[in-house]
Design goal:
With 112 residues, the protein is of the alpha+beta class. The chain is built from two helices and four strands, in the order βαββαβ.
């Protein structure tokens, strides 16, 4: 099995309930295609560097996945058709970093 990091950017105007539905929808696709989710992170609403389909912001969802090429192919084919998504990206990694939370607020970060 291979490890992947998969990030979705959903439209800025969808509700928290719709975000939860997106998470569940793509989690089921991963699990139905011989994959497993090692970790899920919702990074929240963030500014985009440039307009994408007339959106200035996007809701970021990040999956750390263990699976194979079939899992990723099925996931990406479904995402191409989803009107709620602006972009998605899958990166194959050698090992998953489960320790670091990159988008934690500064006050929550431990002092050095």
């Amino acid at each position: 099995m291979n490890y992947y990091e998969h990030t979705l950017i959903a439209r800025q105007d969808i509700s928290p309930a719709q975000i939860k539905q997106l998470q569940e929808k793509y989690s089921k696709i991963i699990e139905n295609n011989e994959g497993s989710i090692v970790k899920f992170e919702s990074w929240g609403l963030m500014h985009l560097s440039y307009l994408i389909k007339k959106n200035k912001k996007g809701n970021y969802l990040h999956f750390k996945i263990e699976g194979n090429g079939k899992t990723i192919k099925e996931l990406e084919n479904t995402e191409k058709l989803d009107k709620n998504l602006l972009r998605f990206l899958t990166v194959k990694v050698k090992k998953l970093d489960l320790e670091t939370d990159y988008f934690k607020k500064n006050e929550e970060m431990p002092k050095k």
